[in-house]
Amino acid sequence: MITANHDVPSSSSIPSPSFIFFIFSHFFVLSPQAIQCSCFIPLWSGLVPPKFNGITYIDGGCSDNLPIIDENTVTISPFSGESDICPQDDTYNLFQLNLVNTSISLSPANLYRITRILFPAHPEVLSKMCQQGFDDALRYLQRNSQ
Questions:
Q1: Three-state DSSP class for 117?
Q2: Residue 41 CB: number of other CB atoms within 10 A?
């Protein structure tokens, strides 16, 4: 999902500019500009969001990181929390943070995961994180198999 900034006519009751949220499931054009738009994180990626076909877009994780379509939606998160598929940390956490529709436990392991998003680790560390994601998905499938 990516978020677009559109100018709404001044006669509208919606203040201009407004934000419109798009969920794209089919990508017909794979261009450097489209990729830039899909992963632009305000302030971290820069101050001015990129445009694609004249429309400003930012990463959809800034608006609704886990869109739920219906009761069959499976939520997946790289952070331990209340998603269907997520890491299971060894520590018990009393505090949960709900940030752009993502439940995140406030834990040292999640703080470490956030730093790995902003500052990528060595390939061996990233490989272990990918394996953990695979194991989390496998655990979910085993728990929910019929």
A1: helix
A2: 14
| Neighbour-count burial of 37, counting CB atoms closer than 10 A to its CB (0-12 exposed, 13-18 middle, 19+ buried) | buried
Residue with tokens 């971290």: 44
Query: If we measure between CA atoms, which residue out of 84, 39, 45 comes closest to residue 60?
Result: 39
- Chain position carrying tokens 């730093």: 115
- Rounded to 10 degrees, the C-alpha dihedral 16/8/68/50 comes to -80
Torsion angles phi and psi, residue 77, rounded to 5: -140, 145
Taking the CA atoms of 40, 46, 48 and 50 in sequence, report the sign of the dihedral they define: negative
Predicted confidence pLDDT, tens digits, the chain (146 residues): 444 444 434 443 433 445 555 655 555 566 787 778 878 888 888 888 888 888 888 877 777 777 778 888 898 888 888 889 999 888 767 777 777 777 888 888 888 888 888 888 899 998 999 999 999 999 999 999 86
Nearest Cα to Cα of residue 64 among 26, 21, 34: 21
Query: What are the residue ranges spanned by the domains of the chain?
Result: 2-62, 68-146
β partners of residue 59: 2
